[in-house]
Specification:
Helix content: over 70%
Radius of gyration: 22 Å
Oligomer: single chain
Low-confidence stretches: 183-188, 386-398
């Protein structure tokens, strides 16, 4: 007797389930670990290695999102798969601080086991369905990356970094470039089942990142106590977090579900938001590093590396947010790239002021972007339109 594939049914609720929200908790911890790693290794090599680990963590989350979007969340077999992935993700997060050190093999083994194991599971349970070819391609890309992940764990220094860069780049490139299978050419794309569900999961990952930012600020403040400088720095960090949230949700953040619903090629629109959310979340992780620094040391000299993360984190977020607009509406509001540019230009000036002052300056720039958003919507009220549209109904830009 053939086992029925556990695909999501049309009558199944399309909102994210409690199991998915529970799964996300592992990634609050993972992002916290990444921000601590970057804080301890605040140099170009450390930033590069942290980026590799960040891309791997995001890959675990992203594949889980697409699995839960396509399969029936009410099926026990899927719930077990998510819970096993949760356990593996927690072990992976524990290995992050020493992934480029003594725990390299643990990290590589757990990562490849999670990815390949899930694809093998899907290959079995989705046999005979129209999307099995997509799983075959995913398994192939995972198989290609296993060797550099494991061999990299057996090496050290530059060799490990180079092999792991190749491994993670291969996994992302298969989807971003639509690379065909060597023996079968192009396969059907894995179109999202629910635009509402997929958009909601992307938004929730952004909220996860903001949660990590608040957690980082609170933990750092707790160490220093209620000194005047630390208290002021903590307030600045929370205001910054609120502004990041406000800038994100302004129109484009709210219209994402509708954008998926009207997209002519949902899978391509699905890939675009993945990468722009990656940039925005990376900006938040860098901002969290800056928060740790200026809350712990609000006064004194601001080293160049500190200035880069304090001002560069919000700048990276604004760059990602501007790209988000372009993905949905094929145009960009001037205030976001302008704000990012101003923040980058202020980095050298930040060397001559205390870290807290540099953080206040970054907050003021973000506040200016948020105010410009509010003024623009009051002048030109109107709802959003489908993605890739040139303008809103009233001619305004999101």
């Amino acid at each position: 007797m053939t086992m029925k594939a556990p695909l999501r049914r049309s009558e199944t609720p399309m909102r994210a389930t409690f199991l998915e929200l529970f799964f996300d908790l592992a990634f609050v911890f993972a992002l916290l670990q990444l921000s601590h790693i970057l804080t301890r290794h605040l140099h170009w090599i450390g930033a590069f290695q942290t980026l590799i680990l960040f891309l791997a963590v995001l890959r675990i989350w992203l594949v889980t999102v697409w699995i839960t979007d396509r399969l029936d969340p009410q099926r026990l077999v899927l719930q077990l798969l998510v819970l096993v992935t949760l356990l593996g993700s927690l072990i992976l997060a524990l290995a992050l601080p020493q992934a480029f050190g003594k725990d390299g093999m643990i990290f590589a083994s757990v990562y490849t086991a999670i990815q390949s194991g899930r694809y093998l599971f899907l290959l079995f349970f989705l046999r005979g369905t129209g999307i099995q070819g997509v799983v075959v391609r995913a398994l192939w890309s995972s198989g290609v990356s296993i060797t550099p992940w494991i061999v990299g764990a057996l090496t050290h220094g530059i060799a490990r970094s180079a092999l792991w860069v190749f491994a993670i780049a291969a996994e992302y490139a298969v989807y971003a470039l639509d690379i065909p299978l060597p023996w079968a050419g192009h396969v059907a794309t894995w179109d999202p089942t629910s635009a509402e569900h997929l958009a909601e999961r992307y938004q929730q990952f952004f909220i996860i990142a903001l949660g990590e930012l608040i957690l980082t600020s609170g933990l750092t403040f707790n160490v220093g106590g209620f000194g005047s400088g630390q208290t002021a720095a903590f307030v600045v960090s929370i205001v910054t977090t609120a502004l990041l949230w406000r800038i994100y949700i302004f129109r484009a953040g709210n219209v994402l579900p509708a954008a998926f619903q009207v997209a002519s090629t949902p899978v391509r629109l699905g890939i675009g938001p993945v990468y722009v959310h990656l940039v925005m979340v990376a900006g938040i992780v860098v901002t969290a590093v800056g928060d740790q620094l200026f809350i712990a040391h609000p006064f004194g000299r601001t080293p160049l590396a500190w200035a880069i993360v304090i001002l560069g984190g919000p700048a990276l977020f604004l760059a990602g947010r501007a790209s988000f607009e372009y993905v949905l509406f094929a145009q960009v509001s001037w205030d976001r790239p302008a704000g990012a540019l101003v923040l980058l230009l202020l980095i050298l000036l930040a060397l001559h002021v205390p870290p807290l002052v540099a953080a206040i300056v970054a907050t003021i720039v973000l506040l200016g972007v948020a105010i410009d958003d509010a003024v623009r919507v009051r002048r030109r009220p109107g709802g959003p339109v489908p993605p890739r549209a040139a303008k809103h109904r009233d001619g305004s830009v999101t």
